[in-house]
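Our consortium's second objective concerns turning raw sequence data into structural hypotheses that experimental partners can test. To show how far this objective has progressed, the report includes one record in full. It was chosen at random from the queue rather than selected for favorable results. The single chain below, 339 residues long, was entered without modification.
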Amino acid sequence: IGDSYTEKAALNKSSKVLLDSAGYYLNKSIDMHRQLNSIRGLYDDYSSLTALEKLRGNYRGALGAFEKAITYKDSIFNTDNRETIKNLEDKRAIEVRDRELKINKITLQAEEKQKWFLVFGIGLLVVIAVLLFYQNRSRKTANKKLSVLNNSLDNANRTKTRLLSILNHDLRSPVNSFIHFLQLQKESPELLDDESKMRIENATVKSATNLLDSMEDMLLWTKDQMETLEPQFEPVAMDKIFETLKKHFSGASGVSLVFENRESINVTTDPNYLKAILRNLISNAVKAVSETDNAEIIVSAFSENGKPIITVTDNGAGATEDHFRALYDATETIGASHG
């Protein structure tokens, strides 16, 4: 309102009423702005009052109003500068805070990645440890299996060696009879009359037939042993075993071979093992009584206290201490002979 009256008074400088009205309203505005502490409003009021005092011709008052306007203008400038500086400081603080937030975010991301790398590394180490443990256990299992297999192969080799030894022992005596007859017929045919020759030939043919049956029986058993290497137990009649042995040793001359089974006992065993054992014992007995007069070998089967017992006895001279030691020590050697 004061400015309006001042503009009107500028147009009509002789109107004292307009000048007074402008001064009244400007002073009233100054009081109001002082109460409100409005520095910018006071600056505007004193600027307008400076113009009014010029219109009145009161240049001293105009200078005083102008100086006050300049004072408030400086205050405004300082205030604006302070606000600007504060805004700049706030902006700087915000930028610093944003930068710190970004740095913290990057740090957190790096820590998160590092954590996952650490988890992955630990997981990888666990997997490697499990694989090494499994590999070690598999190697131990494989070594155990190989050890068992090696032991089985060793047992198989020893069994095969024993089987070949048995075959050699069981077939040597019948074959030796053939060799003896052929040598006698070739070197001293004049010693054999027709009756002796016929008797020896019949005995040889019978022995050859029994040998063929024994060979077939032993070879079939050997084949089974090569496959299983374990005895096959079954009920066996001793009369049947003795009948087979009689045929096998039918060619034995100069010895009385007696088989006794008065109780007609049966045993539970592997028949092939039993026949091989008895063939060996009887062959040894035949050799033991080869130089004995009235040589006799008795093979007996009987029971004692509910248990079956089989014995092979002869009336030979017996074995020496060295022979008995060789039975229990494989490193002992007492010599070798044919027959």
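The partners drew two points from this record. The radius of gyration is 68 Å. The helical segments are 2-11, 16-36, 39-56, 59-187, 194-228, 238-248, 271-288, 321-328. Both points have been shared with the crystallography group to help prioritize constructs.
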